[in-house]
Structure formats: structure tokens, C-alpha cells
Specification:
single chain; 337 residues; alpha/beta; 434 Repressor (Amino-terminal Domain); Rossmann fold; six-stranded mixed sheet; 12 strands; 44% helix
Amino acid sequence: MDMSITVKDVAKKAGVATSTVSRVINDHPSISEATKKKVRKIMAEMHYVPNRTAQSLGKRTAGAVGIILPPLDSKEKMGNPFFLEIMEAINEEGMARGVTTAVAAAKDMSALLDNVKRMHQQKQVDGFVLLYAAQHDPVFNYLFEEDVPFTLVGQPYEHEEDVVYVDNDNQLLGKLATDFLIQNGHQTILFITNTIQENVYFERYFGYQKALMLAGLANQPVVPLITTENYVDFEDLLKESGATAAVVLDDVFALRVMQLAQMYGFQVPEDLSLISFNNSVFSTLQHPYLTSIDIDVSELGRVAVQRLLEQLQDTPVSGVRFVVPHHLIKRETVIKR
């Protein structure tokens, strides 16, 4: 008997979803007799013995939902209103559907993974909403490999066909932001980011590149403001590039970029127009008010909960990716050239 055989191995050979195998194990009525017969035959051939996790998958009830935050390793991340807004929306949607919420948070990835494992294994929650998408993420890998029901907010790096995720069209967002600057006469446009690991950065940067290519304008190398050295080099970069505008990854970070540019003698928007994303409360905390693209954070949270509950209640999920609309909010940080 090979104890290393998993639910996923059986599902792959049977050509069905892992959740289908789990429901066959529990003799769930939503699975046809033909499918049950087929899966049980393969289980027998592979000498698969169901483990406790697999046996419990078909018996979950949506009593509690876990919210997983990314590692909060900086004050900037801890204070990002995106997470506060989406957690509020998830909690409200959960309350409306009779579901409580619990938060998994930590300062580093190892502690976060331990937190998530404990919540799952002790059955504190029935499933999770994962609020970030990162490459080689052990938390994502654990949820996927253990067949834990979850909805991802963002776009996964892998297993796109098998993961339920809710997202904006971030590549389109990047293109829309860049197009708006081009329409206002800007030709040398930077893309400024405080991360080069998260999928939201890649997608928005791809959109930025696409807009410039279609307009026949030169792409600029990405401008990362992550390390102290990056911040020191920013003055020379602004002067040497001759840029008149920039797309910034999100509006909290855009305020930092604005302060830094002004410290180096560049006025916003007179010398440097800025456009960002999220349209949080920070967009209008100080003048000039930020031109930003609203990504409807509340809707992201609501849809994420709805899609998770569908998985928990054995309701067929109509598709895998769910795209939330966006709209441009014109304010004061973009002017015509």
C-alpha cells in the first residue's frame, strides 16, 4: 500500500476535480453513480486510502471563513487601506450570510503559514479568502495541495485553471492609466512601483508597456522604489529621463512618490503628473488630490466570499475567474502638456 497516494493523484487519473473525489469518498448525492463507480475503481487500483482531511472535505459547513493577509513586514503594508476596506466588505458579506470571520496575519511568511495551518487543521474555519498573490507562496501551495477551499483575491501565478479567483483586469488598468497620460500629451512616462514580486505589479506594468507600444512611444525601464539606494537614485532618474508623468502602483505609495519628487524640486502636477490605483481615502487627504482608478475594493471582498461559500456548499462555481469593474477618477495630479 502506497501511503503517498493523494486525492490529487486519484483526481488526475480519473480526470475529475479533487473536490469530486472528496465527495465520492463521502458518498455525496451531488455526484452521479457513474462517476462514483469510476472514481472508486481508480481508488482501488491505486490502493488509495482516504485520510481524515479528504473524508472531511465533503462534510464542511460554512460556519467561519479565514481571511489571510500578506506578511505585514512594513508600516506601509500594515496601514494600507486596501486591506482594511476589503476585510470590512468580507465581514459584512459574511454576517449577511450567517458566517463569521477570522484573520490570519503575521510579520513573516513562515509564521503566516503556521497560522494558516493551525486554523485549518484545528477546523477553526471552513475555508479561506487569500488577499494577495505572490510567486512561490508557501501559503498558496499549502491551500492548493491540501485541497482546502479558498478564493484568491488577485491572479494566481500557477494553477489558473483550478483556482477560483476574483480580480480586476490589472493589465487593462495599467493600459487605461497610461492611455490617460498619453491623451493628456505626455510622451515620456515612468512606471513606479514598491514591489517587483506581486502579480499586480506584473500585470499593471504589462498594461503600461502595451499602451506605450500601441502609441509608438518608448518603453521606460521600471522604477522600483524599494531600497534606500533606489530612493537616493530617484532624483537623478527624474532629471535624466525627462519624464513628465508616471503611473504609480497604488495611491498610498503615490503619496510617498509625490513627497519624494517635491523634495527633489519637482512639483506635482506642474513638472510631473501622477496617476495611481485603488482610490482609497488617502487619495483626497492632501492637495493635489490624486487622479486614481477605483477598483471597487468592496465588490472584490463581497464576490470573494460568495465564491468561497459556493465551494463550501457544494454549489457549482460558474467559472474560475471573476472580474470586478473599475472606473477612472479624475482629480488634480494630471495636467495636459
